[in-house]
Amino acid sequence: MELHVNGETLHFAKDTMTMLDLLEAYDIEEKVAAVEKNKEIIRKTDYSQTILEDGDRIEIVHFVGGG
User: Fold this and answer.
1) Are the beta carbons of 62 and 9 closer than 8 angstroms?
2) Do 37 and 5 meet the contact criterion of CB atoms below 8 Å apart?
3) What is the mean pLDDT of residues 16-36?
4) Are 28 and 60 in contact (CB under 8 A)?
5) What would the mean pLDDT of 23-42 be, rounded to a whole number?
6) SS3 letters for 40-60?
7) 8: closest CA among 21, 22, 28, 20?
8) Which of 19, 29, 41, 51 could share a disulfide with 47, CB 3.0–4.6 Å?
9) Least trusted range by pLDDT, from 26-30, 44-48, 52-56
């Protein structure tokens, strides 16, 4: 599967992935991420049910603590 994540084209061996799978692949906790799929914001409660398809364009913004 080919996905465009934050402007970068990536290839995944899996044929089926959810948004939650993608976040886990990046080691990003779902509670600190905002995600857009094909210019549509995905609700956090829908990450595990949102199926990604070949060619999808994903934008991920996540919050990092600091001090």
Assistant:
1) no
2) no
3) 91
4) yes
5) 92
6) EEECHHHCCCCEECCCCEEEE
7) 22
8) 19
9) 26-30
